[in-house]
Automatic annotation (TrEMBL), chain A:
This is Zn-ribbon domain-containing OB-fold protein. Residues 72-135 form the ChsH2 C-terminal OB-fold domain. Gene3D superfamilies: 6.10.30.10, Nucleic acid-binding proteins (2.40.50.140). PANTHER family: BLR3430 PROTEIN, DUF35 DOMAIN-CONTAINING PROTEIN. InterPro entries: ChsH2_C, ChsH2_Znr, NA-bd_OB-fold, Thioester_dehydratase-like. Residues 40-68 form the ChsH2 rubredoxin-like zinc ribbon domain. It comes from Archaeoglobus fulgidus.
TrEMBL record, chain C:
This is Zn-ribbon domain-containing OB-fold protein. It holds the Pfam family OB_ChsH2_C. Gene3D superfamilies: 6.10.30.10, Nucleic acid-binding proteins. InterPro entries: ChsH2_C, ChsH2_Znr, NA-bd_OB-fold, Thioester_dehydratase-like.
């Protein structure tokens, strides 16, 4: 066996970055969903033609029986299933104002959405609370999930 | 021509049951597709299920082959693709060996059925390279060693150029003979409905195309693509119920060489020869040139088809260009090679290249390739894929007689 | 289970919606763009640390394995063929032979380069035959490079060297 280097000054390392960026298309179902939201302020879900399960956000296939789905309109309102209050940002720095993230069961669908809650204080939120989406003004919408600013209590 | 005995030894081929392929499907291959990765997987699986005549409920296990997360930009890409690939509520695994995944995923599917753990296994491969910016090739910057290679600012094409130069030098092959492969495959692809870059070109077009890293020029290279492909592998008693003409998997083999690629002589793909030796031994093939009727070697570059033909034992070292020049590898020749148009003609979505390798071999042996069907009668075929820094060889031998 | 219905005329049928560059740039379809900030710090390990420190001193170091008898470069802690630790370090010469080469007109992002770069696999004198490293050739015209050419390393000045593969600027042809 030959001797190993143990002096940390002699042990070398190399720094680097991953210099890529990505452009994610929304896909067939996603494109329909975001365009409808951006242009007409309506929400689409997808109902399986065979088993009747309603997917939200919509997909072109049912994951259980692989048959096709058809788009159905829903109101976009829902109920809070769970929520959490974040006081630090992604880099562990304190936020000016705490942000509230919630899992929201969307009415008349079998799906749910994770989004922000707004116009409400953390102490007033209850599981099962009814909420509705608040959208950006039409000129600012981009066809992304951030076109919904937050969900507010009804 | 007998295969030389190399390093892999002591292999045992015990299996519980034979494996047959009864259906395959693929999406179109294009530079950029709108559908997400899950939707592409769904479209390919749907076609394969239709051809086999089964529904997703009959599928017992699923294997997904997909290239690094860096291309699609999703961490844990296998899990992301799961619901579109039919993986909900069933055992699902993801495999990846670089470009070799196109044949390695079916090999993994083979293990599932041959071991008796499943009677019906679905194999899916999907790739969405178009998400990567500034260019899909940029993701390949990270295949290189960060300390010894990346400071020199290499491009992936360099390894192909260095290998091609070595191959041409050792056997004294001219670029004109290599360009014939590109001409043949792009013309073959005109009959493929999913092709991305099918066109009729001449040897002069190839030699005058834009230089990338000499000797490699633009028309020597296959393009990056989005796409997906799927295969259904079943046990014999299921195959009997579904069809009169299943295609049997008679041999599988895979081998990798060391990462220190600069320490190897690149003119011969030893790892492909090792993998082929394994597959041929299992399939009881002793003279590949005579016993193989149709071949789909991996052709991301035109010289690669020749390089791999020699690795697979279909030609003696240095003689593959002669076979091409004499027309032996055309669809109406004695050893049709890449009748689908291969990656040069149809497109190269890394692992979804299964659609033009394993799936195409299945369609040829089942006589369902339509306009692409080769002229001669076919019994046995071989498909092969390759990957990483010239490291991986994966080989599968199929036959329509048991 | 349904009996096989192979009524598809000639599989496959092409499905999928192609998009062009313009479709994205003109926002004909919705999409999300993500610019991540991913940084790495890779350890060089025992063998390459010593190799890089050797480069700083103007030396190319290799290792040897007594079982298979190979002298290897780039160096490693264990012989990958015999699967045992290496037996010692060797200083190699800074001359070598071109095993293969290519003339590149593209940069890592596939954009065209103003001047072509000549890259080669160079087997180092003092190591076992065909033990090569990848590096750049310089002070030579592309059409004059040939396989088998003898080359010598051109180093950076002592103060500029930092213990990296780029401490060798390029390799130039050996006269005579």
């Amino acid at each position: 066996m030959i001797e190993k280097i143990v002096n940390p000054k002699e042990l070398r390392h190399w720094d680097g970055k991953i210099e890529l960026y990505w452009v994610y298309t929304s896909g067939r179902a996603g494109d329909e969903f975001f365009k409808k939201l951006m242009n007409e302020e309506k929400f689409l879900a997808a109902k399986c033609k065979k088993c009747g399960k309603v997917y939200f956000p919509p997909r072109i296939y049912c994951e259980k029986d692989f048959s096709e789905t058809e788009f159905v309109e829903v109101s976009g309102e829902g109920k809070v299933r769970a929520f959490t209050v974040a006081r630090l940002d992604a880099y562990e720095k304190p936020l000016e104002k705490p942000e509230i993230y919630a899992v929201i069961d969307i009415d008349n669908t079998d799906g749910c959405l994770i989004h922000l809650l707004g116009e409400v204080e953390p102490e007033d939120i209850k599981v099962g609370m009814k909420v509705k989406p608040v959208l950006k003004p039409k000129s600012e919408r981009e066809g992304k999930i951030t076109d919904i600013v937050y969900f507010k209590p009804i | 021509m007998v295969m030389e005995v190399e390093k892999i030894s002591g292999l045992k081929f015990h299996k519980k049951q034979d494996v047959a392929i009864v259906g395959a499907g693929m999406t179109t291959f294009k530079r950029r597709l709108n559908e997400t990765g899950r939707e592409l997987s769904y479209l390919a699986v749907k076609q394969a299920l239709e051809e086999a005549g089964i529904t997703i409920d009959n599928v017992e296990m699923v294997v997904m082959g997909s290239a690094p997360d860096t291309f699609d930009g999703f961490h844990m890409k296998g899990e992301y693709l799961l619901d579109g690939a039919g993986g909900s509520d069933r055992p699902y695994m993801r495999v990846f060996v670089g470009g070799g995944t196109g044949v390695f995923a079916p090999i993994a599917g083979y293990w599932h059925v041959a071991s008796g753990l499943a009677d019906i296994c679905l194999v899916v491969c999907e790739e969405k390279m178009s998400s990567t910016h500034p260019h899909p090739q940029s993701a390949f910057k990270y295949i290189w060693d960060p300390i010894l290679d990346r400071p020199l600012k290499p491009n992936l094409i360099w390894i192909f150029a260095l290998e091609m130069r070595r191959y041409m030098h050792v056997h004294n092959i001219k670029h004109e003979d290599i360009a014939l492969v590109s001409v043949k495959n792009k013309a073959n692809a005109l009959d493929h409905p999913c092709a991305q870059v099918a066109e009729r070109i001449t040897v002069e077009d190839v030699l005058n195309s834009e230089p990338m890293a000499l000797p490699v020029r633009r028309l020597d290279v296959s393009p990056p693509s989005d796409g997906a492909a799927a295969l259904i592998m079943v046990a014999p008693h299921i195959a009997r119920q579904l069809t009169d003409n299943p295609v049997w998997v008679t041999g599988v083999g895979w081998a990798l060489d060391t990462t220190w690629w600069t320490n190897r002589d690149l003119y011969f793909p030893r790892y492909v020869a090792e993998a082929a030796k394994m597959a041929y031994r299992q399939a009881h093939i002793t003279d590949p040139r005579k016993e193989i009727d149709v071949a789909e070697p991996y052709d991301p570059f035109d010289y690669k088809e020749l390089h791999h033909m020699e690795g697979l034992g279909l030609a003696k070292k240095g003689e593959a260009p002669i076979l091409t020049r004499e027309g032996v590898t055309q669809r109406d020749g004695d050893l049709p090679t890449c009748p689908s148009g291969g990656l040069l003609g149809v497109g190269n979505p890394i692992s979804a290249a299964m659609g033009v390798k394993a799936c195409e071999l299945y369609w040829q042996l089942a006589y369902r390739a339509g306009k692409r069907q080769v002229a001669k009668e076919v019994t046995t075929g071989v498909c092969q894929a390759w990957g990483d820094l010239m490291q991986v060889g994966t080989v599968m031998v199929m036959s329509n007689k048991r | 289970m349904a009996v096989g219905k192979k009524d598809i005329e000639c599989p496959p049928y092409a499905e999928g919606t192609p998009l062009s560059d313009a479709d994205i740039n003109d926002k004909k379809v919705t999409y999300v763009e993500d610019h991540p900030d991913i940084r790495y710090s890779w350890t060089a390990g025992q063998a390459i640390s010593k190799f890089l420190n050797g480069l700083k001193e103007g030396k190319i170091l290799g290792v040897k394995c007594n079982k298979c008898g190979r002298t290897m470069v780039p160096p490693r802690m264990f012989c990958e063929l015999c699967y045992k630790p290496i037996d010692g370090w060797v200083e190699l010469k800074d001359t070598g032979t071109v095993e293969t080469f290519s003339i590149s007109y593209i940069d890592p992002d596939a954009r065209p380069l103003p001047e072509p770069v000549i890259v080669a696999v160079i087997s180092i004198d003092g190591a076992s035959p065909h033990m090569g490293i990848m590096h750049i050739l310089g002070e030579i015209k592309p059409e004059d490079v040939y396989i088998g050419m003898k080359v010598k390393a051109v180093w950076k000045g002592e103060e500029e060297r930092e213990g990296a593969i780029t401490d060798i600027k390029y390799w130039k042809p050996l006269e005579g």
